[in-house]
Design goal:
This protein is α+β, with helices and mostly antiparallel strands. Helix content is 34%, strand content 30%. It has a four-stranded antiparallel β-sheet. A hairpin with a 5-residue loop joins strand 2 and strand 3. The radius of gyration is 16 Å and the shape is globular. The N terminus is likely disordered.
């Protein structure tokens, strides 16, 4: 007998993380590959060589996403949500203290 079971991760709340990616040294291509596990969209902006990326991340994976975003250094700037921006700032402040 087969049963349909809804797994908790399928009902996980998604957080849309919006960021700008500067296309220096193929950063946009690297970001698209790097975040392949997440649903995402990328758009050109009016600024030259700057793309806007929306990453759809389950709330439980936000810490991992923040660490991955930090690996892009100045090539990626998070615009929203404020909670993710705050976490990035807090992690960078802790690094400066070391």
């Amino acid at each position: 007998m087969l049963m349909d079971v809804a797994l908790p991760e399928h009902r996980a709340e998604l957080v849309i993380v919006t960021c700008h990616v500067v296309n220096h040294r193929n950063a946009v291509d690297r970001a698209m590959i790097h975040f392949a596990d997440y649903k995402k969209k990328a758009f050109r902006t009016e600024r030259a060589n700057v793309f806007e990326m929306e990453i759809y991340c389950p709330r439980g994976d936000l810490t991992e996403l923040v660490i991955q975003i930090l690996s892009f250094g100045p090539m990626m700037q998070v615009l929203e949500p404020a909670s993710v921006v705050g976490e990035l700032k807090a992690r960078l402040a802790r690094q400066l203290e070391l």
